[in-house]
Amino acid sequence: MPVLVMKFGGTSVATLDRIRRAAKRVGVEVAKGYDVIVIVSAMSGKTNELVGWVNEISPLYDAREYDAVVSSGENITAGLMALTLQEMNVPARSWQGWQVPLMTNSAHSSARIEEIPTDNLNAKFGEGMRVAVVAGFQGISPEGRITTLGRGGSDTTAVAFAAAFGAERCDIYTDVDGVYTTDPRISSKARKLDKIAFEEMLELASLGAKVLQTRSVELAMRYNVRLRVLSSFEEQSDDAGTLVCAEEEIMESNVVSGIAYSRDEAKMTLISVADRPGIAAAIFGPLSDAGVNVDMIIQNIAEEGRTDMTFSCPTDQVKRAEKALQEAKEKGEINYHDLVADTDVAKISAVGIGMRSQSGVAAKMFKTLSDEGVNIKVIATSEIKISVLVDRKYMELAVQALHDAFELDKAA
Amino acid sequence: MPVLVMKFGGTSVATLDRIRRAAKRVGVEVAKGYDVIVIVSAMSGKTNELVGWVNEISPLYDAREYDAVVSSGENITAGLMALTLQEMNVPARSWQGWQVPLMTNSAHSSARIEEIPTDNLNAKFGEGMRVAVVAGFQGISPEGRITTLGRGGSDTTAVAFAAAFGAERCDIYTDVDGVYTTDPRISSKARKLDKIAFEEMLELASLGAKVLQTRSVELAMRYNVRLRVLSSFEEQSDDAGTLVCAEEEIMESNVVSGIAYSRDEAKMTLISVADRPGIAAAIFGPLSDAGVNVDMIIQNIAEEGRTDMTFSCPTDQVKRAEKALQEAKEKGEINYHDLVADTDVAKISAVGIGMRSQSGVAAKMFKTLSDEGVNIKVIATSEIKISVLVDRKYMELAVQALHDAFELDKAA
């Protein structure tokens, strides 16, 4: 029988009533003829409680014990979900990570999945089990200890199972009903997308549309797992939510699919850097070593032999960046007059695979912002994305204007 | 290094502070040179919460899923205890049942321990680990699924580990500071026993002194595991609590060690049963089939060819007993005039291994009760126990009088 993976997040299994509602959705898919693998998170709040206890006992905790403790929330939900399905006469059983076994490396608390053997679950499907309820977020290390995949790891678990079992689709049930052209709280014209390409979703996710874990989208793209994001709080039709899929599946699309934004980006400028071959490496090497996630980089030649270097990074990494650059300067590795941090900016991005084949998108974006009197501080582009930094006070205005200009309220 | 097993019940690990206090006790034993195996229960209240959820979802639950859910409380405590010990610089790690592995049969929710291989833990002790924190109450079935040992199973886990590892002693930390000559709430003269024989403890436990699970005492007796019951809420000396041990270790003891009582016993009398060979089997067979735990049995010949048959059973099984006997009568298997249930009785027992060699204990017991005007309704005796049923209103009086008569307030 075809396999479907369904993942329910913490808010979707927060109470016994919600577990029942989720189980009903599973029952609908079973009735359609699917063998279903359900991936569950911990009931919302449970994991935070456990993490809080671990931190209170031991701020520099042993990650192996952390994993043993925090993985228990998912085990509870898995058992309760299996019982709920059985009560609805759906043959189901629960699986903890080590029982599958979902094999990971030994990087406790942020382990990577190495293999998911399919024989154990398939044997049970062969015996008439219709639903395997698997505790998300966890696995087992080569040493036989429990590992976790890091926060949000249940999305990744779901996609990995879909890939391993060749599932027809991986449905991610969450508390939003899909992916929007922009944040509906900022633009009332925001429209839910029926489909979006993996590449677009990756850009939107890393830009702050926190519907799916970036890692799970990457995995889905690599194994071509069709991902559907939908709400567990609404009655569902077959085409509910947003399908995240390969570009080839999307017949028609707007040039721009969505407008993303981020408030948590800071602009940092090194003024009058002594320019020489290898200077970029000398600046960004220490930043990388210090764990600073540099996003946009711009270099302007200011005068002969000297240059200004501007980059952006998350606001909460500004102090770390300043320290790393200061130390590099003291060691004589780089030389600059001044370092200016501007944390009062926002990043606005237009994302769309259509940009690859269509020119004029950047020009239209710049003109739109200019018409609204929004000054652009930094520009960066990739194949399917144009990002600008603007003063934070213009953020909502810029998002709304761009959403209008690219007519995202209208389907392609 | 010699091995010590220490078990902490739910109230002893109810909060992070209490886990810290328990960990300090463990640290004291490690400092003495022991390799320690710590068995932990779930934080108090946790297991009840999980059991409540399972019952709410599915009153006739799949015991395999029940076990998967309710075993998670112990896993949490095990990890938290290991972290707390590490924070005190004691090399420790947690073990879930399947990791040891503690192998059981497949009788989910009341599984029996089949084997505890020692190689995994011993390998870690060999590498410098000083404390193995093991989640109590759980194991793994031959099918690779999680099993639980039934309520109170953590005591049994502790004794089984002590037997498997040849531990010097198994310390059971709980919320009482030992085993008393009788319930201190009933007699202010109740005295804590320093030592008590396994056989005596078994009689006291099954008679209502609910300090230790009967099953764990049976196991301790079979493998001669020295069990110490002590409080986790008091500073401990080396001879704190009560040692439950083989008779040979007890040099001096009173003829009677303790006076136990039970309010939950009912007296049932079948009046004028047609007497014939096999009549006892015809009566008690159906009761056994109905799950009625018959304790005392008395037969009186009332008239030629007819007899009265009296027995006791737990009060909450009276309805079940009546139904079973009524059905046997309707089928013509037995014949009686009437069935009278008296639930207004209490059972009082004097227990002591000294009775084996000393006569006159029963006579002294009966005279004491008679002097107090307490009428005895049923008498039953075993090698080390004399039990009587009396009107419930005399229970406290009878316990106090017997405690005085056998001078239990004085050590031997």
UniProtKB/TrEMBL annotation, chains A, B:
Pathway, per record: Amino-acid biosynthesis; L-lysine biosynthesis via DAP pathway; (S)-tetrahydrodipicolinate from L-aspartate: step 1/4; Amino-acid biosynthesis; L-threonine biosynthesis; L-threonine from L-aspartate: step 1/5; Amino-acid biosynthesis; L-methionine biosynthesis via de novo pathway; L-homoserine from L-aspartate: step 1/3
Example of a GO cellular component annotation carried by this entry: cytosol
GO biological process, any: lysine biosynthetic process via diaminopimelate
Binding site for ATP: 7-10, 174-175, 180, 185, 210-211
Documented EC number(s): 2.7.2.4
Reaction(s) catalysed (UniProt annotation): L-aspartate + ATP = 4-phospho-L-aspartate + ADP
All residue ranges annotated as the ACT domain in the record: 268-348, 350-412
Gene3D superfamilies, A to Z: Acetylglutamate kinase-like (3.40.1160.10), VC0802-like (3.30.2130.10)
Keyword NADP among UniProt keywords: no
GO molecular function: aspartate kinase activity; ATP binding
Residue positions binding substrate: 47, 74
Keyword ATP-binding recorded: yes
Keywords, sorted A to Z: Amino-acid biosynthesis, ATP-binding, Kinase, Lysine biosynthesis, Nucleotide-binding, Transferase
Similarity comment: Belongs to the aspartokinase family.
Alphabetized NCBIfam families for the sequence: asp_kin_monofn, asp_kinases, PRK06635.1-2, PRK06635.1-4
Name recorded for this polypeptide: Aspartokinase
